[in-house]
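Write out the bound-state structure for 3-hydroxybutanoyl-coenzyme A.
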Amino acid sequence: MSEVVSYNREGSIGVITVNYPPVNALGHAVRSGLLAALEQGQNDAEARAILLVCEGRTFIAGADIREFGKPIQEPLLPTLVNALENSDKPLIAAIHGTALGGGLETALGCHYRVALSNAKVGLPEVKLGLLPGAGGTQRLPRLTGARKALEMITTGEFIGANDALALGILDAVEEGDDIRAVGMAYAQKVIDDKKPVRRVRDMNDKIEADKGSDVFDQFRDELKKRARGLFSPFKCVDAVEAAFNLPFEEGLKRERALFTECMESPQRAGLIHSFFGEREVSKVKGLPKDTPVRDVNTVGIIGAGTMGGGIAMNFANVGIPVTIVEVKQEALDKGLAIIRRNYENSAKKGKLTQEQVEQRMALITPSLTYDDFRDVDLVIEAVFENMAIKKEIFARLDEVCKPGAILASNTSTLDIDEIASATSRPEDVVGMHFFSPANVMKLLENVRGSKTSDEVKATVMAVSRKIGKVGVMVGNCYGFVGNRMLHKRGTEAMSLVDEGATPQQVDKVLTDLGFPMGQFAMSDLAGIDVGYRIREERRKSGEDIPASWMDKLAEQGRLGQKTQAGVYKYEEGSRKPIPDPEVEQLIEQFRKEQGITPREITDQEILERCVYVMVNEGAKILEEGIADRPLDIDIVWIYGYGFPAYRGGPMFWADQEGLDTILSAVKKYQDTVGGEQWEPAALLERLVREGKKFGDL
Ligand code: 3HC
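---
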């Protein structure tokens, strides 16, 4: 018997137990162990029913994702699930934690399913660029009908046990926390009530009811908007439709063929890289796993603007009291009103109850004095980007805050060490760079200063997790990882327009790559004044920042969405960017002033100049140790800027493009465009010389 799956008998019940931490994934040892245990149960004359139950925190959470992309050894999962379903003794799955993907498919191969009330089930394969490949697309619709199966399979969302019971996915739900006891009791009932073997594949009522329905075409139409650019959601619909058009065995074959297509798609590789990347970033290089973490039970925030307010919501959402300090009562009132409006909007959409809105608001205390920060465990400064003001604030915090309080800045570009130098405790100072809107975006770029202590680093990573963010630890430099790369892209995008492209052409290349919006639509969203102010600051400090047509927009008060005019124009109440002839004229005028004769610019050049420039900068960021691993950069870009997860992030994407292709383009632009952004990164040159990829680092 395999070490990870055991069989024993208790009374008349044969019990198969899976014990393969952390999540009982269906690796080869589990699949072969389950098959052997099933055979033992079949041959055990005393066993009248068989229970399948898991040890640890969860039921089977899916196929073993680590095996994907490698040759998979028999028995394959569909073979196992079919064997379970063919059992001639009633087979009961007892579910706790999460039954996901291949885990739920295994349970659907069993004849009865019982779960604890806090369990969840789902088929999240689509999030990995796949579809359920062990009968899930054929069995689930037999229990739920077409629409619900399509919803679950194309979104990958989990559903709670009680909802799953109502949908017919589960047969019983029990309170409590002892899944083995619950499973045993249910199995005994099956024996006592002489319940028969009941195979999902033989249940055809819902198939007959939905045959010929137009729900499949409706879903395909919906997906064209919801899943733009993605491959597997459409294959999911094809697979579910097969359950309605083909006999069960044929449907399984069709599902397998579609599954194989998805498995071979580059999107699968990108999404699985993102899945593991999201988890890997929590393991910070050089930070021991057992580093002590400080308690963060109260938080202070400076600034009740868009950023400060959004940050406050993150803490209130998880029950942590927040004190927000502003200079003026008016700003405080305005900030709190916006927070309330955001919560009320969630309540209108049914995401929160009115009681929850009030509970969260009650956790946020407005204040006009830093004295209220005396007892807080963490303070996050979220005022605008001005070093002198930030230093003043940190000096004041140093006086007021208790020893051991963490002093964080939400700066998106400025030097954390310089900010820390305003305090007597630089070891407690750190960057916590939230992304706008801070209550929505999942990324938290945590910036270590040269003196930040390990304890503080570990604490901000833990805080990130606690508030539901993906925390990435990065080093200190201008713009850190995300904005440093973004600025390079922004400069190229502006130059491309100077040289002859239109803003909409640049944006389209980026949205075609899979970004939710292009560079210029993003500037309009963030506010044209933001970039303008940064450029002006840098000019004042003596940097050579060339004049730009975007400066003219800012000077004319075209500040973006908030003024209904920026690079694009906007209709009242709409966020849809509309190209504006006035801006075209302004650009033409600018070209004349600069003596530029516009030329035809290809989409390929836009792609190379906007994205290869980021890859080259990413390589420099790695060389300098600002990011520890390529995957840290990938996760920053996926969760902070909407780089399409199915392309795995810029560095993973670069590996697929070919580093030699990228390097030769970088060299070409070094000659034709020039500028330090096109000086090839030494790391990029080395990798190409050695025939390696970022993935090999
Ligand atoms: N295979 C291999 N490893 C897995 C895994 C899987 N299916 N699911 C999770 N893990 C690993 C994680 O990488 C992590 O490893 P680490 O500790 O070394 O970083 C560890 O298990 C714990 O995972 P989380 O940190 O995510 O723990 P949580 O408690 O937050 O979440 C979970 C648990 C809800 C199970 C979450 O991990 C999850 O959503 N897993 C993926 C589930 C999934 O997508 N299943 C479908 C797989 S595809 C499939 O089944 C194909 C089939 O149809 C043929």
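---
The chain has a mean pLDDT of 95.
The pocket of 3-hydroxybutanoyl-coenzyme A is lined by residues 22-23, 25, 61-66, 77, 98, 100-102, 105, 124-125, 128, 130, 132-134, 136, 276, 279 (CB under 6 Å).
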